[in-house]
Amino acid sequence: MDQNLLRSYFSTVYELPAEQGTLRVSMDGEIVHDPGALPPLLRQTFAILTAYNPRSMLLPRRVNDGRHQVMRDLLILGCYRVEHCVGYDDEPEGVWREPAWIAHGVDRDEAIHFGRTFRQNTIIYCRDARPELIVTDPTCDEVGRSFQGNWRVRQ
Fold this sequence. Notes:
Layout lengths: L2 H9 L1 E6 L2 E6 L19 E4 L11 H17 L3 E8 L8 E8 L3 H10 L4 E6 L2 E6 L10 E3 L3 E3 L1
């Protein structure tokens, strides 16, 4: 995987729904020695999935919205609790924002399958307070290859 793309994925800021309000996080943090210090959501098992812009190809908003709704419906049919979240570039000149779903309790292999089905380059999977970026597009790298990250809570 291209190192610039990998850095971009790790520095993406995600706004996640949490009991105390919106939780802003990225995967470019320092090693967490005490997972208990992280917000409760980040200690749970979940995936961050999107159906927008398959293989980084910009699609019209109407098409993206339709694909994204289908993904949500399939996740709900799979009996997962699904909540809206968003990922964005936090750079001052950054204009990229992409809606996503946080799927609670989804199995890792099933999350990878959703990424492949919706032609995403990668997905994020969190288990035991450890996020990993997982390749789901064989044109980027070997499917299933993962890159470990560490949560960074942003203000």
